[in-house]
Amino acid sequence: MLSGTTNRLIRSGGCTAEDLPDPGGYLLAGFGKNIAFSVFVDSIMQAMGFVEVSVSLLKSLLFGLIIGTVSSYYGLRVKRSITEIPQATTKAVMGSLRLVFVTDAVITILFFI
């Protein structure tokens, strides 16, 4: 049995963020069991609304951009000394963690509080 969202997706040929559940979660949920994909999508949509799914995708995108940008910034600042590499790595990890935590807090406050 397909949900209304899935039926609209099939008829329109389009796809929205609401219709894209986590493929890894589907594989784990269906591991050793026979769970239809439509049942998995319906259960995600019952547990989480469109806003929660959208915010989750936004956070994932921003966290990836932050980690990549901060790591590149510190990595490209390394000069010729090989001893600077571990120092730059540590600074990049700590800087990324700080920015990810701050970004997570700001997004959570904006959307859920």
SSE pattern: HHHHH
β-sheet strand percentage: under 5%
Query: How would you state the average pLDDT, rounded?
Result: 80
Q: What is the gyration radius calculated from CA atoms?
A: 20 Å
Alpha carbon gap, first and last residue: 36 Å
The quaternary organization reads as single chain
- Estimate percent helicity: over 70%
User: How many structurally independent domains?
Assistant: 2
- How many beta-strand segments? 0
Secondary structure class reads mainly alpha
What global shape is seen?
Answer: elongated
Biggest sheet character: none
| Unreliable parts | 1-19
Question: Helical region count?
Answer: 5
Task: Describe the SSE topology.
Elements lengths: L3 H9 L10 H7 L7 H11 L2 H27 L7 H29 L1
Helix pairs in contact: 4-5
Descriptive report:
With 113 residues, this protein is mostly helical. It has two domains: 47 residues, no CATH class; 64 residues, no CATH class. The chain is built from five helices and no strands. α4 packs antiparallel against α5. The longest helix has 29 residues. The chain is elongated and about 55 Å long.
Compose a concise summary of this entry.
Helices cover 73% and strands 0% of the residues.
Question: Main traits of this protein?
Answer:
single chain, disordered N terminus, 113 residues
